[in-house]
Amino acid sequence: MADSERSPLLVTRDVDGESHPEPGNESTPLLSGRDSPRYDGNDSQRPQADDSASIRSRRSNPASKSAARRRWPSIIAMVILAILSITIMVVAFFAPAAVEEYAKEAAVLEPTNLSLESITTDGVRARIKANFRLDRSKVEKDHVRRVGSVATWFVRELATEATRVNVYLPEYDNILLGSTDIPPITLKIDGQNTVIDFVAELVPGAAEGIRMIANEWLEGRLNQLRIMGKADLKLKTGIIPLGTHTVSESLIFEGGGEGGLPPYNITRLFFRDIDNHTVGAEVSISAYNKWPVAFNIPPLAFEILLANCDLHDPYIQVADALTETVVIKPRSNAVANVHGVVGKLPDSLTRRCPDSGTTPLDRLLKQYLGGESPPVYVRGKRHPTGGTPEWLNEIMSQVIVPVPFPERSFNDLIRNFSLTETHFSLPDPMAEPGDPDANPKVSGTIQAIANLPQEMNFGINVTHIRASADVLYKSQKLGVLDLRKWQPANSTKIEANHGDGLDLMIRSRIKDAPLNVTDADVFTEVIQELIFNGKTVHLEIKALVDVEIETVLGELVLRDIPAEGTIPVKPIFHGGSSKHDLLASLRPEVGFIKILETTPSSIRLEALVNITNPTAYTASIPYISAHILCNGSIIGELVAENLDITTGNNSYLMVQAKWEPSAGGDEAKAIGREFLSQYISGFNTTLSVQAHRDTIPGQPLLGEALSHFKLTIPAPRLSLPGSSPPARKGHFIRDAIFHLLSSSAQFTLASPLQYNTIYVEYINATAFYNHTEPVGRIIYELPIAAPPGLSRTPRLPVDWSVGSIGRDKVRKALGGGLKLDATATVAVRIGQWRERVWYVGQGIGASVRL
């Protein structure tokens, strides 16, 4: 070592500039001078005191000047030490606040990477990389910036020894969040960048604190989080120790109310049968890691939970899941592959909630099928198999993460909803208003196609189905088809016609489903199209369907599945070129007429009717009534009960009719008389049938809707004895026998009644030959009975037309026969009912006898 390095801090120099160290030892004072006493015990060398006179004498001679020069270094040293003392005092007592503020504002710490190297039995071993520097431009106050710059220029760098940092949660009763041991670090504080790179083991603290924070964050309730770090920090600069300092610092993390899982995509979801009571699930989830963090998550075991009836009820576990190792890299996508097992579903999932008609599964499916994202809850298993550390199990088992179920559109889950083999039933006349039996009923075969998601590759069998369906026509609601009763169903998997995968064909035979017509105007429009315009009507169906299914997990009920479809309703009549031809295709025939009750102005009768149903629909009619009209006037009432109409021919349908034209007034009475006259004369007559408000008991809206239409049909032909087919004109008078000598005639009558006798109480008839030549006239005022079947009248007196060609023709036909025409006014009586009608007969076969 050079001599100068071993020289004292302060030395005296002679005139030639050489240094002469003062002799001394450890007791030598830092500053020496002649007027300073010596403490080495040598009194002979102790300097004499100087008085002012001696000082002045030394200044006046050269020897004295040389001594003065030798004392200047001491004075300079004293000044320097004074300045340093003052500086130390300022730095020690006044500058620390400014330096601390400078350090806080100028410090820039930029994390560059955080990687998880391993999970240990006590915590997590992580590697932390960051850049540190002091940026004086970030300091706002000028004096703080100047003081801090001077202080950091002097110090240059700081070093810490190994330090344990504990992190607490002040807002949560100072729960220990975790701790870590930080290795020695040297920081450059003169503005240069310091690269920090060290490995530390992070040891979690109380699991309860971590659970509370995690749950609040996942629920979006953690607006901000204040943490406090405490450490005993040993500092030094170079080799100079700066002591141990207890550091306590709080940080506030602002969350802005945002929380929960980061955005993710379910890239794969697949279910499959494992055995006869277990379904396996495979899920792949992708999420982007926007942080400079890298680590591997080891395989972890989870429980999959669903919400219970009440928020305070425990969650319902439905599945177990196990993840594969997840590799997370900074600012890149991470993929988690999850394997789950769903066993037999617990009873609590399908048990109805108190004061509610739904189950937890119902509510989940209702949200999911409605296009929402119901949460599925994930919780770590408390005692999983494998090598997961106990501390991690403890934390994971106390944190429940809500995972929104992926959204999926179910608008086309059930499509092609159709109804075939349709059968209609009119309301029960004895049903009370509001009773389902007071509505028309529909029976038929429901057929629908369920669009099975490709992810579902396990056995499903539909066993029952029910629904509440709105029926619409041209987007206007016609009514409601009530299928609230469970109907047996079956299903078959078929190849999908829209791509890969399978569809589920569902069939169910429904019986007597009430159809409640809610808009009479819409129903009127439908009837108009079907009956009078002969067009196919497409009814729209919008339904909420409940489906009972069998799976390997047990029997499940899926409720309120949206379904849409179209039911094509073929026109009631078809095959004719005109409306008249279509209506005539009914071909009604009336026979076996029985008079049930008579009054002087009315007849109530019962008859068997044969009609042809030209439609593809069948119907059951418990009760129906309609007005009978002729030329717009009501002349009677038609009533039918307990009719079953099938396709094609329908024979022996029992109907009742009441003939009472007088109820419609004098005009209706005259119209009724004219109709009877034309009908018995064999004219082409028509009747109209029109519904009214009480046509269908309990359904006035339906009756009013039907009342807008009049169904006009040819008057039905009566079935007469000894006539097949009963189609020729003049069929009520089968034949006649003229007796020339007695000037009388007998007629064979064919009565349409099978149980009652018709009485002819007055006859005023004229017979014609060749339509115009009179033969004779009959006036008879005594009652003539016409019992059921064929009967012959007594001999009626004939007043021959003398000199007429007609009489000569009759005489020439003696022993033979000829064809005659006749006109007559006839008074008839059935029971108490009486009516006078006219009759025109043509082509009546007459035999001539003496």
TrEMBL record:
GO terms for cellular component: fungal-type vacuole membrane. Residues 456-570 form the Tag1 C-terminal domain. Residues 1-66 are annotated as: Disordered. Residues 13-23 have a biased composition (Basic and acidic residues). InterPro entries: Ig_Tag1-like_4th, Ig_Tag1-like_5th, Tag1, Tag1_C. Residues 728-838 form the Tag1-like fifth Ig-like domain. The keyword Cytoplasm does not apply. Keywords: Membrane, Transmembrane, Transmembrane helix. The chain crosses the membrane at residues 75-95. It comes from the Eukaryota. It holds the Pfam family LEA-2L_5. Residues 587-700 form the Tag1-like fourth Ig-like domain. PANTHER family: CHROMOSOME 16, WHOLE GENOME SHOTGUN SEQUENCE, PRE-RRNA PROCESSING PROTEIN. This is Pre-rRNA processing protein.
